[in-house]
Amino acid sequence: MKIRQKLLLSYLLLVGLFVAAGVAVALNTMKMADLQANVKKQVEINDNAYAYQQGLDQKQFGTLVYCTRDNQTGTQIIVSSSEKMYQAETYLHDALQSTPDLLAKFNQVTSLDRGQINDAITQATNIADSNDPDKFVPLWDQLDALNVALTQADVQLADVRNATLSEVQNATVQSQDYANLSNIIDIAFIAAIGGVSVALAFVMGKRITDPLKKLADIAHKVSLGDLNQRHYLSQNVNVKTGDEIDDLVDAFKRMINAFRMVEALTNESEATDKP
Fold first, then answer.
1. Residues 122-159: pLDDT tens digits?
2. Is the overall model pTM greater than 0.70, yes or no?
3. pLDDT number for residue 227
4. Residue 265 — pLDDT band, cuts 50, 70, 90?
5. CB 14 within 8 A of CB 197
């Protein structure tokens, strides 16, 4: 394998490590993004469930205000709370589609609102508007029925909110775990890339520079007339690296052999020319 190919493979190995590190971190980042999106959704569900619960409480308060003969203010409170609840209800019905258990609990709340709660409010306001001198007993009965229905609704809404808070906590813990894993992956790959880089630099440098240093020393001695370096060359530099170093060693051998042949021919010519 040629030196260029060895260097290219070393470069590709380092690039592969960088790519693997990038892919691992990217996957963790994507997972963290999904968890964060889930956290955001659960927080919105919790906020809307709380808004719906607040709307029910305002309905009860508006009913009490209405029954104290402040009909206009009570009606305004009841209407505004209903509008607030409608927005929250629309959101929750869509958001809870992926969690049938929570959707069932919320449907029970809306059933209580449309059934027992609204019925108790209607009965209470009608009784409050009547001129019956004995209306206070049935009025308190309706207000008590309203309170019981609201308590049942609060229990179901509390289950929904607690479930969303639990999801938020779990997602937060998982997100932190992925963040820690990303840090570990970063450190591990940095250490691996650093170690591989140092190892490749040492090995490649030694495989290339050591023979070249020996060849440089041989070339220096040959330039001074020492043609016996051919034997040293065969014993010490013939490393068989499979690259251009082998070609260079062979070229040195041929060069020294050529010098020796020239020297032998010169010596023979000088011996022939002597009288």
1. 999 999 888 878 888 898 999 999 999 999 999 999 99
2. no
3. 62
4. confident
5. yes
